[in-house]
Amino acid sequence: MTDGPELPLWAALITSALLLAGAAFTLIGAIGLVRLKLFYDRVHAPTLGATLGATLILIASMLTFSVLQSRFVGHEILLGAFMLLTTPVTFILLVRAALYRDRAESNQNVPPMD
Amino acid sequence: MSGLILGYALLAAQLMLGLAMALAVWRIVRGPRAQDRVLGLDTLYVNALLMMVTFGIRTGSTLYFEAALVIGLLGFASTVALAKFLMRGEVIE
Fold first, then answer.
1. I need a surface site. Which of A60, A83, B10, B12 has the fewest CB within 10 A?
2. Domain extents in chain B
3. Is the CB of B2 less than 8 angstroms away from the CB of A8?
4. Which of A34, A43, A75 would best serve as a mutation to test chain B binding (most B beta carbons within 10 A)?
């Protein structure tokens, strides 16, 4: 049950290291999402998982499928490029909305103008 | 031998990603405000997408990659729609 695909040893070692590093970065991002105090601090944490964690795990997947099928398999690039493009867009929209709501209620803890 | 190494690395990575998803759910439940919940939802779908990719590595099948692509597309659309709703009170004006 715990068996993965049978790769050559070098590919298995590289894939394992990339997977563990990527998952660890994602977990650190999620811990930051829970631990940080302000919303404007918390926005920064999950981007660690969406950029570095996703990149490392997708490279691991590319390596596995390339070795398994003995040819270059690059469809993970599509997913990686899509995530790298969409994450900043969603977070900019979300933070603009949060700023608007906080200023409309004249909340404290809002980053200063300009 | 190499399958065993990769299997345990996959197991550890999936446990870490599962814990990250649980933390994102905790942020959705606790809030405290709507924007925090949307942020938690965004983190949850990114982690689920990465989990799908690790399942794809374990089984050696590209079907999971397509599931991950669908999760990415729908998650992006839903987060943008929720952010728009928080900003204006309506999604499509």
1. B12
2. 2-88
3. yes
4. A34
Instruction: Supply the pTM of this predicted model.
Output: 0.88
Q: Is residue A96 part of a domain?
A: yes
Provide the domain count of chain A.
1
d(CA B75, CA B86): 16
A76: CB partners within 8 A, 6+ apart: A58, A59, A61, A62, B53, B65
pLDDT tens for each residue of A79-110: 989 998 999 999 999 998 888 888 888 777 77
CATH number of B2-88: 1.10.287.3510
Q: Is residue A1 part of a domain?
A: no
